[in-house]
Amino acid sequence: MNSQDTCTPDTPAATLGTPSGREPGSGIHPVHPARESRILVLAALCLAVLVAQIDTAVVNLGMNPMAVYFKVDVRAMQWVADAYNLVYAVMLLTGGLLADLYGRRKVFVAGAALFTAASVLCGCATSMAPLVAGRALAGMGAALMIPASLAILRVVWHDETERARALGIWSGCNGLAFAIAPALGGLAIAWMGWRSIFFLVVPVGTGAIALALRAVPESSAPQGRRFDLAAQMLSAAALGMLALSAIEASHNRALAWGSLAISVLAGACFIRVEATRGASAMVPLRIFRQPVFRGAIAATSGMTFGMYGLLFLLPMTWQATHTLDAMQAGLALMPMALAFVLVSSWTGRLAEIIGTHILTCGGVAIIGAGLLAVGASAGSSSVLLAQAGLLMAGIGMGLATGPLMGAAIGAVPAAQSGIASALINVARMAGATLGVAVLGAIYAAAADATQGLRLAMYVGGCAQLACALAAWPAIRAGR
What we know:
Layout: E1 6-7, H1 35-61, H2 63-70, H3 74-102, H4 104-123, H5 128-156, H6 160-192, H7 196-199, H8 201-215, E2 219-220, H9 229-247, H10 253-277, H11 291-320, H12 326-332, H13 334-344, H14 347-354, H15 356-377, H16 384-410, H17 417-445, H18 449-477
Antiparallel strand pairs: 1-2
């Protein structure tokens, strides 16, 4: 394997187009499949996003019937969700590195196949052990599949404008999954029982695999990099302990703070080790010299910090104050998800008109304003102001998500697209984890649910506005 990003010529998609020059400034031959093939590539990548997001949402709906079937308490059932989250966090950087080293299509297909097989294992589980094991395997599959999908977007859509449009559709699938999952999962559980929620993703995952094998060109870029065991272990400890701290935040504060301290220490050691590796590092630290990449990381962390805190606390408050029941709360979140889907599809065109920096930082700021509106609505007998805040959050997510992903992976050479996509997903995960932990702690420390929601949303909204302001000069400089 040479030092260039390579596309295997015997894949069907690769035969539909030929390389035309090198990517400017990178020394990398971009992949140029024909337009018809790119549509199939995008379909495969979107199916992967739908698989991961629908699965996560519908599994939460099935917690109670699964607990009844297995005769276990809520604490035991929490690990059905947490096993997925923990393994996903631990494996995320590994997934991005493997995609760059050994082939992005290969890792994408492996992740989709593992995710699909894990879902079958969960659906067939007769005890808690295989159920939790299946969820852990699904987390590993997602950690391989999601970074690889973004890396493939970077390699196939080398033109920034075309890539922005593709990313708008890709990110819109996150909102689409969030919109359809509650109704789909609820119907499946009512008609066919809790096992059906795991089998729902099997045909979608199989379709993603079939399309990827048919249309996605293979590409890789080892460039002297290698699998570094010390870096892998330190990154796994840092990300895994960060996830564990969020998992235990509401149950065992001592363990949560201890895990967070270990995460910070492991992260510092990871940076020190990587600094000695130079260009062969698992995460080449020079990637952070790119202002746009740093800005995208900051804005993404702020975006998920507030957004996941909102999604965690608002439905809980509605139910605690008897404003809405569980079903009504789920339905009340759907307009936000639909706004996310509708706005996402236009971000490519909007980026051409007003610029990526306005979409990304403006979108995060709009989410922050939405959280402030939700905070102001706390204690009101009407949900109208909260709905206005949710709509603002959905619009902001739609504006920012795709362009932030595009800014991150577009700021680095195509050879580093796998690790760049893993890092932007690490920023998403870290922001979400800290958002739930910090805003949840503020909520829990307040006198009541109303005051807790108000304080948490004000802190979350201000944090998002601060991240948008901090990211603005860096992303704007990359125009």
